[in-house]
């Protein structure tokens, strides 16, 4: 049983960083399917469901702005085996007061709005019961209630956590505003990450094409390569 949902999301700024840019952040022109999936997961995530993005409508013209931001000069270290064995007790965290910062330029998006179409797949091997239809209806009701009331596990964001976004659930009887009247090829874009092998997580890419303001992201339709 499939339950389809539509969310409208918007925010002042967004940055969906292109992975080939190592130092300076440069955003894709539109939201990536993985970032869109993250917004649905921020509203409702359970081990037994997996979200799939079908289509993205761009509701506002694509505008970019260049800014400079203060960023830390290093990443948080992963725990070593000695930490896991409680043989070392030094902190793995970063204290920003003691860490040098660097100013880096970022090319980000400004004043964005999207309409995202998605559905969730029930994973029977991770479900608590054997009744797939009952579990699917339960999670569908949970998502509808949470999205309608603006509830979320954590604040959804547009690429970077400092760029939080607003969202609302679109009902089936609404008259929807049309997306922007523009068609464009964005080239190869990050689709998602393949977690089938946790020891070797691989990125997936697809050729993104916008037709009259809409981008089809259904895995069965788009060409996805690793």
Structure description:
The chain is mainly β. The chain has a single domain (4-225), classed as 2-Layer Sandwich (Alpha-Beta Plaits). Helix content is 14%, strand content 40%. It contains 3 helices and 12 strands, in the order E-E-H-E-E-H-E-H-E-E-E-E-E-E-E. Strands 1, 2, 3, 4, 5, 8, 9, 10, 11 and 12 form a 10-stranded mixed β-sheet that branches. A two-stranded antiparallel ribbon has the order 6-7. The longest helix is centred in the middle third of the chain and has 17 residues, at 132-148. The protein is globular, with a radius of gyration of 20 Å. The two termini are 29 Å apart.
Q: Unreliable stretches, pLDDT < 50, 5 or more residues?
A: none
CATH class: Alpha Beta
Helix content: 10-25%
Measure the end-to-end span: 29 Å
Précis, in short:
By secondary structure, this protein is mainly beta. It has one domain: Alpha-Beta Plaits.
Protein topology:
Layout lengths: L3 E11 L10 E2 L6 H11 L5 E10 L5 E9 L8 H4 L16 E22 L9 H17 L8 E2 L1 E5 L1 E4 L14 E11 L7 E10 L2 E3 L7 E2 L1
Parallel strand pairs: 2-5
Antiparallel strand pairs: 1-5, 1-8, 3-5, 3-11, 4-5, 6-7, 9-10, 10-11, 10-12
């Amino acid at each position: 049983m499939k339950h389809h949902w539509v969310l409208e999301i918007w925010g002042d700024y967004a940055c969906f960083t292109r992975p080939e840019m190592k130092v300076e952040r440069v955003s894709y022109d539109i939201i990536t399917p993985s970032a869109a999936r993250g917004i649905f997961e921020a509203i409702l995530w359970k081990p037994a469901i997996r979200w799939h993005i079908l289509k993205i409508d761009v509701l506002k013209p694509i505008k970019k702005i260049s800014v400079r931001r203060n960023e830390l000069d290093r990443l948080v270290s992963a725990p070593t085996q000695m930490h896991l064995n409680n043989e070392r007790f030094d902190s793995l965290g970063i204290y920003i007061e003691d860490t040098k910062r660097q100013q880096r330029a970022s090319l980000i998006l400004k004043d964005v709005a999207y309409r995202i179409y998605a559905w969730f797949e029930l994973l029977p091997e991770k479900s608590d019961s054997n009744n797939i239809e009952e579990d699917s209806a339960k999670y569908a009701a949970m998502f509808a209630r949470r999205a309608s009331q603006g509830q979320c596990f954590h604040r959804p964001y547009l690429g970077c956590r400092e760029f939080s976004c607003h969202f609302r659930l679109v009902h089936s009887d609404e008259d929807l505003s049309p997306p922007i009247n523009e068609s464009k090829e964005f080239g190869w874009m990050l689709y998602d990450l393949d977690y089938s092998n946790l020891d070797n997580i691989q990125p997936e890419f697809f050729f993104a094409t916008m037709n009259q303001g809409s981008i089809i992201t259904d895995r069965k339709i788009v060409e996805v390569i690793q």
